[in-house]
Design goal:
Layout: H1 2-19, H2 33-43, H3 51-57, H4 64-67, E1 71-76, H5 116-120, E2 123-125, E3 138-140, E4 146-152, E5 155-158, E6 161-162, E7 169-170, E8 174-179, E9 196-203, E10 215-216, E11 221-225, H6 228-232, E12 238-241, E13 247-250, E14 256-264, E15 267-268, E16 282-283, E17 286-289, H7 293-298, E18 310-312, E19 327-328, E20 333-336, E21 341-348, H8 361-389, H9 405-411, H10 420-442, H11 450-472, H12 489-506, H13 519-532, H14 536-549, E22 568-570, H15 578-583, E23 593-594, H16 595-608, H17 612-626, H18 635-645, H19 652-659, H20 682-687
Parallel strand pairs: 1-8, 9-21
Antiparallel strand pairs: 1-2, 3-4, 4-5, 5-6, 7-8, 9-10, 9-13, 11-12, 11-14, 14-15, 14-20, 16-19, 17-18, 22-23
Helix pairs in contact: 8-10, 10-11, 11-12, 11-13, 12-13, 13-14, 14-16, 16-17, 16-18
Length: 697
């Protein structure tokens, strides 16, 4: 009986023991969410290329269930703002800028915050080592997003995004990989990324408030260069046209940096290109498109800027946009990374987008002819003023048509800032400058000799600036009306000399006739600019180069002003009516530039440099032609001879001031320090608060 009771008790205990719940299995300390996250972020702390992801991962909250099997993490490289989905994750860094945008694996300066939801797109339950990532395998992110593995040998993509090598972390709790870009927004049917570059081109000339970048540029021609030197030498690495979406994808290109040039008709992303210097081109760098007047007011002073125009980079930070702000071209570039699709945006347009479209060839030629005629007349009027200022043209010797109170006031040094003829020279000079600038911007793309025409425009404009600088002293580089300022003579002088130097490099040494400038005649203008500032070595070098070239020869004493004279370097006879001819001794032509002045400048420079032998040789040459007894080449002898050889041709008054012999004018009312310059027209002073009047007026 006792035995039976014992058996029954044991059975009862056994049964009741089976019905009790099993005690919970202790949670693995190493699989706790906070432990795994801390372990991953600690080990990745020094990985700058994924620092954005690592910083966000520190703040994520995971559940025990999500980490119980360990986790696999696909950490995207740092992304620039706006790179959230595959369709947009390579979008522009520059907003309305035409600077090409690109993401760099090591770009930690521009980051975007990843949300918890986006982080979960990159985390998978379970530990999947590199060998586990087999082709076609499907993984599921913590958000339920599907991730497809594509594998070719040891190259792996997740939803088309390439893994950057093998595992960067591996343990029993986690596997971590770096991926080229974020997985949010990707799909299992996305094609694996190759080493590719996608460029989107925007036409900024179609700007409006509703279209801050303009329109997409269809059928634009895109050229990639391996270096800026290759661009200068016209050696593209690869080229192609944009599609109906304004895009072009260069597939399977080599990794590296590519410089981008885009053209579409007359529009381009190359602006204000210089002549080639040291084997390279320079031009403006685009910092975006002005969206409103407030942006214009806050930017560096940019002549005539309006909403829709490009904003140029103020490279030297002087607050004014001019040729000193040019940098090596092309400015836009993109970096291509192995196994990644990189994207860039480029804006094309004109130097001034808000201007009219390019002229037709007929319109261009007609406008150019008109402005050249106006400059010819302007030159003769300026030479007339120079003549009546100098001792060689007393008022009683000029034709009656010029005997007006305004001219008389100039002759007697009583002219004030309201003198009409002084105002006309200023106004007409700047009007021609404005027209030439417009012609340069609107020149037809396909016009014959386009490069040479642009160079002649630039040289002619520089010549006008030089003449204005010579007579008015303090002048302005053309800017928006109301914003003119004339407090930076060095900037004006530098602009003139740079334009002339670059035009010289772009022009041929010889052209038919003397109406068009060539390299030699522009070099002479450069010599005149150098002489104005007494840069004698530069004057000697430039003039000697002209003489040595032999393109021009001194004409005989009585044929210097004949049509087609061998020494005429630049002239235009438009406006040379009988009144002017009477004043200019009834000559057949009235040149802007001729070889005689080249020799005179060379002699002056060599005397100043103590090169007496060379100065004497050229002095004798000119004296022999004039039929005068030879004299020693001294500064005093040269000045008298210069006035004799170049009467009423312009710049004589300016030369006499340079020589420091203005005291001879004292009997006519000349005041040193005042009459060395013409007054700035009062109307210009009144209309521009930053314009300063010359001393004494």
């Amino acid at each position: 009986m006792k035995r039976n009771l014992l058996i029954a008790f044991v059975l009862f205990i056994s049964i009741t023991s089976c019905k009790k719940e099993k005690p919970p299995i202790p949670e693995s300390e190493e699989r706790k969410p906070e432990v795994i996250i801390n372990e991953i972020t600690t080990k990745l702390a020094g990985a700058d290329s994924i620092s954005t992801f690592t910083a966000a991962l520190k703040k994520i909250t995971l559940t025990t269930d999500e980490t119980a099997q360990g986790i696999t993490v696909f950490a995207p490289l740092n992304q620039s703002p706006g790179q959230q989905a595959r369709s947009s994750r390579m979008s522009s860094l520059g907003g309305t800028s035409n600077r090409s945008s690109e993401t760099s694996p090591t770009d930690t300066t521009k980051k975007t915050v990843l949300t918890d939801s986006e982080l979960r797109d990159h985390i998978v339950k379970g530990v999947f080592n590199f060998a586990d990532l087999t082709n076609g395998r499907m993984l599921t992110g913590l958000n339920g997003n599907q991730l497809k593995v594509t594998r070719v040998a040891d190259t792996v993509w997740i939803n088309g995004i390439r893994i950057g090598g093998k595992q960067i972390m591996s343990s029993g709790n986690e596997a971590v990989y770096a991926v080229k870009s974020i997985l949010t927004g990707t799909a299992v049917n996305d094609e694996p990324q190759s080493t590719s570059l996608e460029i989107t081109v925007w036409d900024a000339t179609q700007w409006s408030a509703a279209k801050p970048k303009g329109d997409l540029a269809i059928d634009a021609w895109v050229s990639l260069y391996l270096s800026q030197k290759d661009y200068a030498d016209s050696i593209p690495a690869i080229e192609g046209r944009t599609d109906i979406n304004g895009k072009i994808i260069f597939k399977k290109v080599s990794a590296g940096v590519y410089y981008i040039k885009v053209t579409h008709g007359s529009k381009s992303n190359i602006f204000n290109r210089s002549a080639k210097q040291n084997g390279l081109y320079a031009g403006y760098a685009n910092a975006g498109v002005f969206q409103n007047q407030s942006e214009i007011n806050a930017a560096a002073t940019q002549a005539g800027a309006a909403p829709g125009d490009f904003k140029w980079v103020d490279v030297n930070a002087d607050g004014v946009i001019n040729n000193d702000d040019r940098i090596t071209l092309p400015y836009e570039k993109a970096t291509v990374v192995v196994g990644a699709l990189r994207k860039a945006e480029v804006m094309i347009g004109s130097l001034k987008n808000t201007q009219a479209p390019a002229l037709t060839e007929t319109e261009f030629n007609s406008t150019l002819s008109n402005v050249e005629s106006n400059i010819s007349i302007w030159h003769k009027r300026l030479a007339l003023i120079d003549g009546i200022l100098s001792p060689k043209a007393p008022m009683d010797s000029i034709p009656p048509i010029f005997s007006s109170p305004n001219y008389l006031a100039i002759s007697t040094f009583t002219a004030n800032a309201s003198n009409q003829f002084i105002k006309d020279i200023w106004t007409q000079g700047y009007e021609s400058i404005t027209t030439l600038t417009t012609l340069q911007e609107l020149i037809p793309t396909g016009i014959a000799g386009r490069t040479e025409k642009i160079a002649r425009i630039r040289a002619t404009r520089a010549y006008i600036y030089l003449q204005l600088l010579t007579y008015y002293g303090n002048i302005s580089l053309q800017q928006s009306p109301g914003k003119l300022k004339n407090n930076d003579r060095p900037a004006v002088y530098n602009y003139i000399t740079t334009e002339l130097r670059e035009a010289t490099a772009a022009l041929p040494s010889s052209v038919s006739g003397a109406v068009n400038l060539n390299a030699h005649s522009v070099r002479m203008i450069s010599a005149k600019a150098a002489l104005l500032d007494k840069k004698y070595q530069e004057v000697a070098d430039l003039t000697q180069a002209i003489i040595d070239a032999g393109r021009y020869t001194l004409a005989s004493k009585n044929s210097q002003f004949n049509s087609n004279s061998s020494e005429t370097m630049w002239e235009n006879s438009v406006g040379f009516d009988q009144n002017f001819k009477t004043y200019f001794y009834n000559r057949a032509t009235m040149p802007y530039l001729r070889l005689t002045e080249v020799y005179l400048m060379n002699i002056e420079a060599n005397i100043a440099l103590n090169n007496t032998t060379k100065a004497q040789a050229y002095f004798d040459l000119l004296f022999n032609r004039a039929g005068y007894p030879l004299r020693q080449a001294t500064a005093g002898e040269l000045r008298g001879f210069w006035a004799d050889q170049m009467p009423r041709e312009g710049n004589l008054f300016a030369s006499m001031l340079r020589w420091g012999i203005s005291s001879q004018y004292s009997f006519r009312g000349f005041v040193e320090g005042k009459h060395n310059r013409l007054p700035i027209p009062q109307s210009v002073i009144d209309a521009n608060e930053n314009m300063l009047q010359n001393p004494g007026y």
